[in-house]
Design brief:
Elements: H1 3-33, E1 39-44, E2 46-62, E3 65-68, E4 74-79, E5 86-87, E6 92-98, H2 102-134, H3 140-169, E7 182-184, E8 189-193, E9 201-202, E10 215-218, E11 223-230, H4 231-234, E12 242-247, E13 254-262, E14 267-269, E15 272-282, E16 294-311, E17 316-318, E18 321-329, E19 335-346, E20 350-355, E21 362-368
Antiparallel strand pairs: 1-21, 2-11, 2-16, 3-10, 4-6, 4-9, 5-8, 6-7, 8-10, 11-15, 12-13, 12-16, 13-15, 14-15, 16-20, 17-18, 18-19, 19-20
Helix pairs in contact: 2-3
Length: 370
């Protein structure tokens, strides 16, 4: 076979390959240029129970937290209780050694000396009156008056010594149980904090200062949730509404509570008006709740039972109107009808539809991309 004939034989396969490549490219470009069929996800119109909730951040704390303060100024010499221990009303928590005021001490000592002088004179007059009365020189009335004077002098000296001991030691001689040096709890409860140590100076509460706190005591069986809610939601709250409390430190624990207080006055927090709320917690016996735990309160603001609803991903908003696309045909392609709807309550995932669609219809969602 000569070379010319060989070249002719090789030419036809090459032409076929080029032709096939050209045809494939043409078909590919043609298919790419054809519009793709748009297929949308479909969502049924159905009935659901919808709830609009709000979450309020706050803390759990005792309803009443009592600060125990001394009735005298002095130095802590003994501490009988620590934080975390229970205490009963009138039980001693600490002991204070009095540091007497020199002016008050001097006045009390002077009163004792004066009372001793008065008693000595009253004793002399009374002894004389006794002898005269025995001799029937004076009347019974005069004798009785002198006896009263003597008794009063005795009482004055006793009172003066008692007052001196209170100034000097903080203890009443006539009633040591009421000693102001012994700091007693005023309520039953759990000691939350003892902010002082032995050797610390303490001062009593008066019109110039709040005094030193020896301990804080609270009833940990009576707890409340305290938090702040935004002004846009506070108008939907009412006292007595049920509240669900979750505690961050205790995963899985949910506490029932009842809203019992809504502040009538707002305060500005980070540029927004906030209103304080309080909810009484129903504490289970097995729960060990500590004061100051961070917690979240879930409150149902609105509820709609058996509401006709659609997913919010199916909604289209135009101005003040809301629309959905309702499936009217699926053969050969999906066909939809744009409808205006009247909306109601939303829970963040589903929207209540009051008018515009019926249960059983299907609405268009997001475009399926395959």
């Amino acid at each position: 076979m000569n070379k010319a004939k060989l070249r002719n034989l090789m030419k036809w396969p090459l032409i076929a390959v080029v032709g096939a490549a050209f045809a494939g490219t043409f078909i590919y470009l043609y298919q790419r240029s054809r519009p793709k069929e748009e297929v949308y996800a479909l969502h049924p119109v159905e009935t659901k129970d919808l709830e609009k909730k709000t979450i309020v951040n706050g803390k759990i704390e005792p309803r009443d937290e009592v600060s125990i303060k001394p009735q005298i100024s002095g130095i802590i010499t003994e501490l009988y209780k620590q934080a975390g221990e229970t205490v009963s009303k009138d039980e001693v928590i600490a002991k204070v050694k009095v540091i007497p005021d020199m002016g008050n001490l001097s006045a009390a000592e002077h009163r004792v000396r004066q009372a001793e002088v008065n008693l000595q004179q009253a004793q002399t007059d009374y002894d004389r009156m006794c002898r005269l009365y025995e001799q029937k020189v004076v009347s019974a009335e005069s004798f009785e008056k002198q006896k009263v004077t003597y008794d009063q002098a005795l009482l004055e000296l006793s009172g003066a010594k008692d007052a001196l001991n209170i100034v000097r030691e903080g203890i009443s001689l006539s009633n040591a149980k009421l000693s102001t040096t012994l700091i007693r709890s005023t309520v039953d409860g759990l000691i939350l904090d003892v902010p002082v140590k032995v050797g610390n100076s303490v001062i009593l509460s008066n019109s110039f200062n709040d005094g030193t706190t020896i301990a804080t005591v609270a009833d940990m069986t009576d707890l409340i949730f305290r938090g702040n809610i935004d002004e846009t939601e506070v108008g939907r709250l009412s006292e007595g509404m049920p509240v669900k409390i979750t505690v961050g430190a205790l995963p899985g624990l949910s506490l029932d509570a009842s809203l019992e207080y809504i502040s009538p006055k707002g305060v500005e927090v980070n540029g927004a008006n906030q209103f304080e709320i309080k909810a009484a917690i129903e504490l289970p016996d097995s729960a060990n709740i500590r004061s100051g735990y961070s917690a979240n309160a879930e409150i149902v603001l609105q509820r709609a039972e058996k509401a006709v609803c659609v997913p919010e991903v199916a909604l289209e908003f135009s101005g003040d109107s809301t629309f959905v696309y309702v499936l009217v045909d699926s053969v050969p392609n999906q066909k939809f009808e744009r409808r205006r709807i009247d909306t109601g309550l939303s829970d963040g995932l589903h929207m209540q539809v009051r008018k515009g669609v019926k249960v059983g219809e299907k609405v268009r969602g997001m475009l399926n991309i395959s």
